[in-house]
Amino acid sequence: MKKNVRTIIFSVIAILLIFVGTSFFGYNTKNNNVLIIQFGEVVDTKTEPGIYFKIPIIQTTKNVYVGERLYDIPSSEVITSDKKTMIANCYVTWQITDPKKYYQTLSSEAVAQGRIDVVVYNAMKNVISSTSQDDVIGGKDGSLGATILNRISMEQYGIDITANEIKVLDLPDVNKEAVYNRMISERNAIAAEYKANGERDAKNLRSAADARARTLVSDAQVIAANTQAEGESEYFKTLADAYGASAERQEFYNYIIGLDAMRESLANGGTITIDQNSPLYSILNNQK
Fold first, then answer.
1. Predicted local confidence at residue 178, as pLDDT
2. Of 92, 113, 124, 288, which residue is the least packed, with the fewest Cβ within 10 Å?
3. 265/41: higher pLDDT
4. Domain residue spans in the chain?
């Protein structure tokens, strides 16, 4: 009898220990929430680390990570407003903002990723389908990703897409060559325009320089002509003064002119003949 009582007591204690052990739970993990689930429904959410109570057997718990996650979305084709096909690949960062709503609508990360695929692709398709190919390519600096992000809403799933970045934005292989050739033609046209403008400016500069040079030459010729005229005038004036003076001065002047002529002739390799009766002959022969 005593043995049966001890067995019953031990059984009750064991049941109490199991009850107590399964009635309390705790967690201290950062960025974690705990859902308390009863008959498949979320009846409570614990958002702060600590020790909590739940009804054994009837209630269970589920940990939900609420920190930021990275998801790389598979590549897909999109059509621009000018009917050009492009290959787009992007990644998003996302986090759970309402664990209860997340659990009730999606329940797992794999299901959440599938829903993110659909929502992000639809937003990207809507943005790119209203944008030309040139503008899409020009938006690879981050503005395109920001525009797409503004079209994404996953609040109904308890999820927030915190960032969306375009990782790859390319052309299908069959279209690349045609687009590259068009881009090359456009760059060549721009280069030809720059070259034509440069040649036109150079021609204008040369014309202006030639006109200036002609003006300077003309001015110099005028100055030279005036200077020559003044010299000749002075020359004839000197001659007039010389021939209009006394016979002695005329004779001296003629003598000087003769010396100049003789010097110029000798400097150029010429020869001269001097009469023995000439005063110059006497001077050159040291005769008095």
1. 64
2. 288
3. 41
4. 2-65, 69-171, 178-234, 245-288
